[in-house]
Amino acid sequence: MALLDKNASPEEITSVVEAWLDENWDTEKRCAKGEDSYDEKAWLTKVFEAGFCVPSWPIEWYGLGLSAKQGGIIEKAFAKRKAQGSARDRFHLGAITVFKVGSDELKRTMLPIMLTGPICCLLYSEPGAGSDLAGVRTKAIPDGDDYIITGQKIWTSNAQEAEYGMLLTRTDWDVPKHRGITFFLFPMKQDGVEVKPINQITGESEFNEVFITEARVPATHIIGSLNEGWKSFQTAIAYERLIMGQGITERRGKSKADSEPQLITLARKSGKYGDPGVRQKIAQALAYRELNGLNMMRAKEEIMTNGSSSLMSLGKLAMSRVQHGEAAIATDLLGNEALLDGDDNPDAANVNFDAAKAYMNSIGGGTDQIQKNIIAERVLNLPKEPEPDKGMAFRDVKSS
Amino acid sequence: MSQISDEDRQALRDGFARYLEADAHEEKLRSGIATDRGYDDAIWNQMAEMGLLGIAIPEDFGGIGGGAIDVALVMEEVGKKLVPVPFVSTCVVAAEMIARFAPDSVKQDLLEKIATGEIVVSTGGSGDFVALADDGHSLTAKSAGDGWAVSGEVSFVSHGGHADYHLLGLNEDGAQSAFLVKSSDTVAAKRLTTNDPAQRLFKLKLTDAEAINLKGINADGINQVAMRGIAAAAAEQAGATRAIFEITMEYLRTRYQFGRAIGSFQAMKHMAADLLVEVESATSAALAAAKALDAGAPNAAKFVSLTAFTCKDAFREASAQAIQMHGGIAYTEEHVAHLYWRRARAGLPVFGSSDEHREQYLKSREAA
């Protein structure tokens, strides 16, 4: 696929990619041409070999050396035919992190496997390390060419399917907390790894607990360097926040702009839409949502021109007010009906689900309170809070 | 649509911001407040020099042919420094009304004079320049020779003391009309005591005052003008919101108590982060409204309502919290915070309250 390079026009890219898809992808059957069913590994391998998997990466690292914008054109052509596998340089967090901070050996051995497999799960949080993530206590002890891992991780999505996890461990207990952490690319399919789904207050089970008991990972799978995992991890988390932000704007983009908002429909149904107090509340709730969309659009424009935007960090915080606020209004509109639940009471079930689900945004990926600290310190340059564990050996840090 | 290129727009804004940074400091604001007009004439003259007074006026009429987006950027800068110039009344509302409805015989002359800064035009302080009946006015108009004569009383007229013309609306038995009343002996202006010391509000008493009838006004045209006025005022508030927020952040970084900067306390950080959402939302709303107006977008009215209440409320919140976060120092007249806070309060009823705009916004979100 040496047909595309930095100078390729959008039209050229589209025509090359479409021709390739014509030849290899059966849009109707949603699988590779000539096959009867979708074989994920085989298809992803095809996309990988063509370079469409990570088009913005250099040719020597499985990409095509294209710009992010050019990559977006490939992504669009794939999306149009509902074909998987493109834009993994935007969404495959594990592969992106290995590509950015991994050793050449790790990249050469693992990237082809990662890019043609399921996305990695993220083994970060622990029962005792949530907001204070650098307080992880999962142990990694060297043993020959391997490390032996023991500990418990929580809030892990995709842990059932993932072949590899991005694992934060403690390798030195006698230095301050940020300096004794090592980041591993950890094989999930082995003895000593037990995955248990968590039952959430929404009734869903998106997350898992992962219990690791004397499982092994080769020393060559360290991402970055020994005891410098916190630095490597910063790269991973920055991409994660970027993806979350993009997710928000993309989902917003898909909702029909001119269809009537659900809160209005619900208020009409409840007979309370004429109440001026109700109308003011609904208007403000809709405004908060629209304003967040406008902020994120500005963020996108700033990223296009300056490469970054501090506005991006506001999206998640603003969304908490939107989601909790809308759910509260909807609950009030339903009145007694909100006491009910289940399939027989779809309005109530939806509202009660939304009210619980709002915590996903205001706690997940860093609570609103942590997010406010981050915004205050990184965007507004307000000084850091004194940290009692600063400079203290992690071994001596108080824990609950 | 704006006739100004993106580059020129940026240069214009940067040049104006640099000028204000150097010449519109707090001392100037305070010395301007002590004058009859409320602002330093040098700033108005500089704005004329830079072409800013004619920014919304077409080139053929002596302006530079900008759009709502250009007005918004200028007003953001004006707002940051709280410069109390009669820009919205003269260069947006009056200029738009004249361009649309003034007789050809005076149109060119008046617009050129606005662009050069020769004339200042006042409007009803409520912004509701066509139907002022609620403000207790009792204006009547009759034709007199070639022109018109307007009599009666009208209140809440901003900059009514030194304005050369007053844009006044009449609503007689449901029939709306608008007049440009010329300042002369027949117009007596009584200054009202205002809560914002930089604001200039007057009660006018007109006795057969010479006036130009803006014939052919219609609801749609007036609505278009009002939307541009609202968007401009909102952009001013967005700029002021950002400025008082930044002043507050600087204080949090440099004020020490308990041996640490007060900005290191989470109680302060969390207020700051919440306020930043309001600051950025105000900017985003102001830009969205201006862009929608320039594009002639069918949903422009929605964005204008959104920016109206978003910017009013953000400015009120950011300036009120600024006093709280500063503590005692901002409870003194020497500190600038109360001037922002008073300006925010002064803006609340202008062009309709936040609640009224929220109601309009809700209507625009309903299924057609």
Please count the helical segments of chain B.
11
CATH class of the largest domain in chain B: Mainly Alpha
CATH architecture of the largest domain in chain B: Up-down Bundle
Order of helices and strands of chain A: HEEHHHHHEEEEEEEHHHHHH
Q: Mean pLDDT of chain B, as a whole number?
A: 93
Taking Cα atoms only, what radius of gyration of chain B do you get, to the nearest Å? 21 Å
Strand runs of chain B, count: 9
Amount of beta strand of chain A: 5-15%
> How would you spell out the order of helices and strands of chain B?
HHHHHHEEEEEEEHEEHHHH
Short description:
Chain A is of the alpha+beta class and 400 residues long. Chain A contains twelve helices and nine strands.
Task: Write the topology of this structure.
The complex is a heterodimer of chains A (400) and B (368).
Chain A: H1 10-24, E1 25-26, E2 31-32, H2 40-50, H3 68-80, H4 88-91, H5 93-101, H6 104-115, E3 121-123, E4 139-143, E5 146-157, E6 164-170, E7 181-187, E8 193-197, E9 207-218, H7 229-254, H8 262-270, H9 276-306, H10 314-334, H11 346-363, H12 368-379
Parallel strand pairs in A: 3-6
Antiparallel strand pairs in A: 1-2, 4-5, 5-9, 6-7, 8-9
Helix pairs in contact in A: 1-3, 5-6, 5-7, 8-10, 9-10, 10-11, 10-12
Chain B: H1 6-23, H2 26-33, H3 41-49, H4 68-80, H5 87-101, H6 104-116, E1 121-123, E2 140-144, E3 147-158, E4 165-172, E5 175-182, E6 187-191, E7 201-213, H7 219-254, E8 256-257, E9 260-261, H8 266-295, H9 300-326, H10 337-347, H11 354-365
Parallel strand pairs in B: 1-4
Antiparallel strand pairs in B: 2-3, 3-7, 4-5, 5-7, 6-7, 8-9
Helix pairs in contact in B: 1-4, 4-7, 4-8, 5-6, 5-7, 7-8, 7-9, 7-10, 8-9, 9-10, 9-11
